[in-house]
Fold these 2 entries.
Entry 1:
Amino acid sequence: MEEGLKNSDIIITTKMKNKRQDGAFIETQGCIAEFDNLGVLTLTSSTQVPHYVQRTVAMVLGMDVGKVRVIKPYVGAGFGIKAAANPMELACCILARKTKKPVKMNYTRDQVFMLARARHQFSHTITTGAKKDGTLMAIKHECWLDGGAYTSFGIATVYYTGSLLGGPYKLDNMSYDGYRVYNNKPACGAQRGHGAVIARAAFEQQLDMIAEKIGMDPLELRIKNMMETGDTTCNDLNMSSFGMSECIEAVRKGSGWDQKKGKMPKGKGIGMACGFFVSGAGYPIYRSDTWHGTVIVKLTEDGGTALVYTASAEIGQGSDTAFAMIAAETLGIPLENVRLASGDTDMGVDLGAYSSRQTLMTGHATKDAAEHAKRQVLEVLAEQLKVPVENMDIRNGFIEFKGAAPDFSGLRTRYIKEHRGWIDNPASEKLTFKEASRIAFLERGSIVGTGKYKPHDLGGKFKGAAVGTSPAYGCSAQVAEVTVDMETGQVTIDKITDAHDCGKAINLTSVEGQMQGSVSMGIGEAMHEEVIFDKQGRVLNHDLAEYKIVTSMDMPKVEAIVVESDEPNGPYGAKEVGEGAIMPTIPAILNAVYDAAGVRLYELPLTPERVYTAIQEYKEKNKIK
């Protein structure tokens, strides 16, 4: 790093500070615990990680994991805050065992502010060196996390903060020192874009500052330094697919960047930024060789329906739909022939909804299970029709054969007398999946496919290399357009143009929804959100009247542009969109504010008072009336 800075023509050092956030999910945490006559504990809880809650409860109560069942109903979001067992869940289970009766507990909204573990307050100091031609040379990064009274996800957070900063740019030299400070405030944990959001905001502002110094378009500076598919960061993060340059070009066109940059009136500004994030954590939260996800696909006895069982956590992000679509695609049947149940630890192992892992990881396990079930059906047909398995496939609900179809009339005749009710259409010229599955059931009993997934070996050899490793990385670019009232400091966000590389989009509607949700949360942190404490560490604004989150009235027009690459490590080429899309939002807004008002802001949120003060200081320094 020292050598990189020594060889730099431009060196910029800035500090950046955000404020602690609350998750502000609509549904507060709640749970019901009950022991049955066999001593089995069933905990129904609004969690996003049933598996981790199951393990924690089992350890605390001294029970076998197999005696603890955690059920996650459809819950009102999580955003990372529900990514671990909470004290209420443990207390609820202990009381149920003590009283031998069902126990129900819920957090009030003010308890959420005190006990739920959301985003840390960060203080960053970043130094970036570059050549006169815009080539990035080195980053020196120091970060202090205001962590609260207990560790929570503090260790992972402080690692993520540094490990995810270098990408998506080619950068050979980097050093990072991170510190998590204990104090008398409530503990912090994970929140969307875990650990990496504010570091990205600081760094992306510096890229604009470098571009201004050398007279280069900020967009072109990023393209010049952008990683490509197959590149590896200096901390051993491999870009197995990477459509970042395509994202930049998409927002350039979608926002009209070339027609607007440098041509807007005072008070109007445009800014852009980039970001990337993991698509699944490379390792479990606890060190283990466990599978990250297991899935069961069972065909009903009539062959008409595929049942998909997974312990995954559907918290509104659309994972249930994605898994049903993957199962249908793999089996070769219509989506309406798939039923899915999720969120129950009795259905298998799934590490939960965090680190944007579900589509890639549980999606792989779903595909694996569906392939296993499909293979069993085709094996029975191969035996009955004397046709090699490799000469058959299932598409659109029908069995397809290579070359001429064999005579399956005898097979139909054999079963039709006793099982007329199970045959779709005895006169059909095609054999249906329903018929084939029923035949397979009659031969083998229940057709059950099992699937599993864990990533290949990931990570470098240096300290902390395991954090930030992932089977894939999503990336995004955003352009923000703002209006700054130069007399009051009020910032209005007029439009966000967002492009995200999600690999192959399995469910386009869900991808666009996740992009819009990320933008919404990014705007909240940039413009409004701050948990305020008194000197004793008590929260002063512990409700959604005084803690300001983005509503529909605050949202600008958002143009979501889906950029597709082909991720070799993802099911059907898919990867994340849940968190990476928040990364560019804050710095794009900050760069747009600078373009509009000529001032750089290094502390969030962008309250009118803060922006007004910065404008007045700028005017005084430059003797502007």
Entry 2:
Amino acid sequence: MMLAQHVAAYTQWRTNLAGGLEAFRKWLSENDLSDAQTDLRIARLLEKLREDRLNIAFVAEFSRGKSELINAIFFADYGSRMLPSTAGRTTMCPTELMYDPSKPPSIELLPIETRESNAGISEYKRYPEEWKVIPLDTGSTEAMQDALRSVSDVRHVTPELAEKYGFPTGNGNATVGRTGEDGTVEIPRWRHAVINFPHPLLQQGLVILDTPGLNAIGTEPELTLSLLPNAHAVLFILGADTGVTQSDLAIWSEHVAAPNQHKKGRIVALNKIDGLWDELKSADEIEAEIVKQVNDCARTLDLPSSQIFPISAQKALVAKVNDDASLLNRSRLPALEAALSQELIPAKREIVQELTGTEFSDIHARMRGLLDSRLAGLREQLDELTELRGKNKGVVEYMMRKVRVEKEEFESGLQRFYAVRSIFSQLTNKLFSHLGIDALRSLTAQTRSTMTGATFSKELSEAMRNFFAVARANLIKSDGEVTEILAMMEAIYKKFVVEHGLKLDSPTGFSLIRYKKEIDRLEHWCDTHLNTVFQLATNEKSKVTQKFFEEVAVQVRKAFERANRDAEAWLKAVMAPMETQVREHQIQLKRRLESIKRIHQATDTLEDRINELEHVEQTLLGQIRSIEALGLEIQNTLSTVADETGLRAA
């Protein structure tokens, strides 16, 4: 099955999952079980599924055939090369290929001059007026090809301006912009490109990140700090004609398989094997040469040879355009596409399964608990009324006093609940005093002041280390607050279960470990790219300070913002079941008391009331069966292999 089929299968699985959640939300509303908090939680799950993206990054040094490989995998159906693919550099700036139905097909280009500001690419995405927009005429292949060439545009500037934009100059291999005979330097015209294109795969949520070579990657730290680490699969392309060069190895070690980064979803393509197709050699000799190249690359990259796929992107494109199955097999692209699918789809699917499964299980358990509570209260009411059959008025009065005492005792116990809610609010405030953005903003301002006033490199280095130490300490303190909140809620849950018979499972846990790991990753990047003896010795203090806050501190802030959103959602989720059960128990007690009062006033209504409650009991039992069936259906969808789902749907 080709990559397109795998993506289609995954999309169908995601659509089935969203359909199940929508049906569950509708059922809750129709059965008067929904509330504002539950509806909001399901709406957020559905929104996440709608906005779900499969991110795949293509990384290589220039002239490795990266753009040709993207053409072969994704654009062969158009009958020609859509992305520019010629000798030398064609991808001059990071380029995202995606589809947003709210925008017309177009190319959005961020001018290189924006490097002069302190804002990153993600910041500029909030300001569409800063981008140049070129419309895409999807009805004309030639017009689209012409428009797409704009991504490769360059400028010739003075060496000083090139340095200012972050491009080292000179004539060595380690430079980004090479100085020409006229003394000017060739640099990209654009800092970043976003191609909004209604390709079937992009319409299904696939996002392709096409990156430039080694030094161009280094000039845009958001790539290595955010875009590449967050890709669900990274395809690293080598050339069979070059093997693993020093710049290839640098990209691999620094940006693709760097320490402390997950290796899952990393695939290597050894491109241009058609250069080894020698008519004077036998098929066995050619195969031996390819195997040797693969083994050499595997040894250099410290990978098993099974993770390296020899291919010919150019021949694969020709084969697909001409519908030549024999040439396509010889290009070996199908094996790479299969491997890419096996890395990309499961990696993303696991994330969706974990997030959706955990949240839905909690919502489902809460709603099932609510029904169980209603059923228990109703059966208690039925037992009481059944016992009143044939009893005199004195017994009815005794029963009424008994329920009234129980109601008063529960309302007395509510004072404890209100006290807990007050303490909960205090602990929440304490949690956000460490985790909140205000605390991070204060730390950032303090660090900036220290770095700006620093005289020696050592002071700069210590300020950066202190920034991470305090940020990490705030997460550790926040974890302590989370533990205290959870312990308190567990205790009060158990108390109300024992004393008042509420139906409460253990409260949902919460962990900040993913954010601690993100801080560790960002600190490692800082220690290897910025807070080094070489960088501190060769760069001005102001430049180091600027890079730290533009590139590193921004990513730390984003991590804390995500942690805040998750913590707020958890705090609402952990208190909601308690509030719902307390409210439900109050309603049940009130109904029991009113029923007995009515029986006391007119004993001939007893049988009518019993019959009415027995009917309600059957309704509740039917609701419990329905909610279990709906929950099982969604759990089955979650655990179904995505490819199987798509194939069945097809």
